[in-house]
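Appendix B. One record, verbatim.
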Amino acid sequence: MERFEPMVAIDVDTKQAALKLFDELANDTAHTPIVKIGMELYYAFGPGIVKEAKQRGFKIFLDLKLYDIPNTVKRAMTAIGKMGVSFVTTHAAGGSEMLQAAKAGLAEGAKAAGCPMPKLLAITELTSIDDRILHEEQHVDFSLIEAVQNYAQLSEKNGLDGVVCSAQEVKAIREVTGPLPQGFGLICRFMMIKNGSLRHSRLASLAAMGSWLAGRLRWRKIQSVPTK
């Protein structure tokens, strides 16, 4: 099972604030985290913000959660594959055809640009979804955890590298996905304080279950990283 540095969510409102965080993180000699660039930052400043992060030597988790018809997702992933990022996301709810198209497009783009193939991760259920929304609004008969397990199995079946999930879902997902040597990874959100709780037992237990410890990492010296 591969291990990666924690991922820092660059959830700020301005390009200046993002660049400041990039510089401060790049100057830390003990850790070189993977930076997570999400919809807000990418839609506001485009591919240029990815280039800024790459110029500072960061691996990048481009969290755009693609979800559309297969051909559209494939073309979008082809463009993303050329950017040299390390992780990208798509919604498992798009189904097998869309997931396969996402993977094919990503591979085409990476090959065309001479870049390594990024890890393709699926979103299972958004953390804002609960059983009430699932049953009353989406008319899904499964429980929330069963829906998450189903999406995880679907993602693994279609050759994705892992899923994004909550820490509470790790054990349930591991019950229905392949053994750890196969490398199906779980990205879990958590908050970690630099020089504080680096060895928290919860993080250790997640790692033992094959999770890529990821999500929100707050460094004490960087006060502008949100903790919500």
